[in-house]
Amino acid sequence: MKEYDIVVIGAGPSGQSCAVRAAQLGGKVAIVERDYIGGICTNWGCTPSKSMIESAKIAQIIKESGKYGIAVDTFTIDFEKVAERRNKVVKTVREEIRDLLEHHQIDIYTGQAEPQKDRTILIREGKLDVDGETMHFTGKEETIKARNIVFATGSQPLDLLSFNKEDPTIVSSNRLISIDHLPKTLTIIGGGVIGLEFATIFTNLGSKVTIIEFLDRVVAGMDEDISKTITSILHDKGVQIFTGYEALSVDHGTIKMRERKNGQEKSVDSDLVLVAIGRKPVMLTEALDNLNVEYTKKGITVDDHMMTNQPDVWAIGDATGKSILAHVGIQQGVICGENSMAGKKSQRLMDYSVIPAVIYSIPEVAVVGTVPQDLKGVTVEKIPFSVNLRANIEGYSDGFVKLWLAGGKLLAAQAIGHNVSEIIQEFANMIALKTPINDVAEIIHAHPSYAEIARLAFNHVLGKSVDFYLKK
Fold this sequence. Notes:
Blueprint: E1 3-9, H1 13-24, E2 29-33, H2 39-43, H3 46-63, H4 79-103, E3 107-110, E4 112-115, E5 120-128, E6 135-151, E7 155-157, E8 170-171, H5 173-176, E9 185-189, H6 193-205, E10 208-213, H7 224-236, E11 240-243, E12 245-251, E13 254-259, E14 265-269, E15 272-275, E16 279-281, H8 285-290, E17 295-296, E18 299-300, E19 313-315, H9 326-342, E20 357-359, E21 364-369, E22 379-384, H10 389-394, E23 400-406, E24 409-417, H11 424-433, H12 437-441, H13 453-461
Parallel strand pairs: 1-2, 1-6, 2-3, 6-19, 8-15, 9-10, 9-15, 10-11
Antiparallel strand pairs: 4-5, 5-6, 7-16, 12-13, 13-14, 17-18, 20-21, 21-24, 22-23, 23-24
């Protein structure tokens, strides 16, 4: 029986990062994956969705090419080619991750991991269905032993219990992201991050999209100005949005919904219905019980070292219920890899205080920091993208950056606009390092660039803007 310092269950971003970091520190490491290497992010999430969003961006550029003086009279979207490119990107990334693991001499096992009380791990070979719920076993088994066990088992889409799972028109995000045909009509139940990204993809590629949101506005966890702006942009693209509605049932593409305020019911017909109401941790409860590991419905219970109540059992990524963001999982994985190899030596703590988040809609939405509930002593500034020269040159002047400041320092930033995913990190670094805004305002920023909006905004706040003034 092979023995390892660390066995990581799950080869997504958190599991991969943990395995590599532990191997870098001299550990003998194995990783067990029951599906494809790369986990949800590579195979069903970040990589395929952003690949399709890139195709959606190109479609939008061609549609709007006339404003750049380029006449494109007719064009077609070949969704099979879009899907083919998506699949190629996914396969390439998957192979690169496998190569990285092998480079660090990490043993890769394929199958369902079943940890036992004696810290041996039974690995049963099998294959998951497309939604990642049912495992079909082949009968082949192998057993290995671990000094440390790391659960990096990821998450899966939440479903509505009242819906019929056998209805072929109801799809999860896992299934929708892997289709090879374009639905003429698509209804999305849920106006959060996942829902808006799929709305962006399919409306730009030619589907008629409807969003049904239970709350009174989409992305309700973000600033109201963000919600209003993205709603207006989606409306202009032909997306129909019902906020304050509860989805009651689906019957072969017919969705019944009820307005929460007055109880009025109506229906919408669609080729496909995406349930995008969030995700839940994948927890191997039988294994956790075998190991006497504590957990709740929200996830596996861990401390800030990523350790469970058992000193040789760890958990990272979506399985902890702390966050479903890949970059949070990566950081958890690195910290877990270091701590599990450190023994009783000084250990790193996970810090969740500053986490940038992005919606890859068109345009993008990006947020970081905590918006204060009490605005006493807080300055709130909203800087339009139209003051940024590069945004004007390239025709992306829609959107804004909104800042919350106190004591000459940045507390939070939220933005909607072209490439805001690439500028939010400067704001994140400032919040984490408690950098005075004057220090950043005095740093030379490349001109013209989208990142320059940070300098423009802070100089405006400090009353020394030489680039623009806000018209009343």
